[in-house]
Amino acid sequence: MRIAQTAILLLGALAATPAAAQADAPIIVTGQKDIEKQIESFIGALTPTGPRAQMARFENEICPRAVGFTESQRLALEERIRLVAAGVGLKVGDVTDCRINLLIVAAPDKVAFVKSLGRKHAYMFGDQSPAEVRRILAQPGAAIAWQVEGMLNADGHPVMLTQGIPVNRTTHAGSRITAAARTYIAGAVVVFDSKGLEGLTITQVADYALMRSFSKVDVARLDKTSAATILRALDAGEDEEVPVTLTQWDFAFLKGLYSGANNLYAPSQKSDIRREIEKIGEPDKGDEPASAQPKG
Q1: Beta strands 102-107 and 181-193, pairing class
Q2: Domain map (residue ranges) of the chain
Q3: What pLDDT does 77 receive?
């Protein structure tokens, strides 16, 4: 995947306005009642997968690049992503020498930018069909995000195509719990409307971007849960309170996703996520607060 080359071109050619950012605020964390119900609705909203599906994950080292931000914002955004990535168990590439596989863009018009990207660099969408690209463009809110996926066999080697048909050559057999082959995230792109970033801090922007890229979540499903999540920050009303950073549940979601074996089916992956969230405990048992402040 040639995300690295494209990112370098975009750095010189993108006519995006710098994203607005404010000084970061202290982290505060809020609690939730009916904890079990909340956990189920939170995981269900963020993981719309069937029992024989898998939740794709990054398996190569993370190497982020931000475009359309001021230089200081770019450096802070990329550093934040690296910090969280390491915290949830991802490998992180050398800041001076790694292959870019996570691109975060602030553009005046997100849809126009993504359409232009498709015309000039169609490989950035991987093997996704025209219908799938149209669904990407139709994503609601002030950001568009997608992943480019590949497939590995149980030995960790790419599944090869023979006359267009994937052929899995491995000595490892699948089972009801583990798969003989797995999807993985080869790269991800998050494109923001610049105006949609007004009133947010760079930490909020970075945390939103990594939640949309480290896992395939559907923000249109957030109405199915009332749990606090950084994913609400971007499209909240001007006076609506939003998290100032990843919430405890956001972090536990990612840590659970990346802590388990890489060949599990979705139900086992969700169980790993549930266990991580349950470790947080009830808010009245001494946990740190969950954080919110009015947007803007």
Answers
A1: parallel
A2: 3-22+29-294
A3: 98
